[in-house]
Amino acid sequence: MSDFYTEQLIKKQADVKDLVIKAVLVAVAIVSVLTVFIFPVGLILPIIIIACVWFLMSRLNVEYEYLYVNGDLDIDKIMNKSKRKRIFSTNAEEMELLAPADSPRLDQFRGAKVVNLSSGRPDARLYAMIVSKNGQTAKLIFEPNDTIVEGLFMLAPRKVVRR
Question: Which residues neighbour 68 within 8 Å (Cβ) at sequence distance 6 or greater?
Fold first, then answer.
């Protein structure tokens, strides 16, 4: 029996929200350094603020890793290429539908909670996976490679719409 296994790494592009957050953090760091000239005894405050800014800026460097093994899909968020956090885990049995993000078959799931785990690139090949867990329906937007799509199609052909 052939195993379906793949790892896929997707780098998230900075969007407008990320750029605004970075600009605000840099402005806060600059203002905290300038306050040292006004209040010379307040040297510890800029050091603390710059450390917090560095920590928050590093958390904006995000990659997603999709790991697919025989029907189980795990998605991890990797921050600054050092810290990993499991964001999503499911299997083919919990999946209700996997279809391209612009598919009309997704119209019936408009009220589902949307979780976007894609790169944010405009040319990305996006898929939406509808998953039901604990009575909650979630719509996961991600960029699976052909191995993931084919592996899920082999396990649940009626639940997968391919391009």
Answer: 4, 5, 6, 7, 8, 74, 144, 147, 148, 151, 152
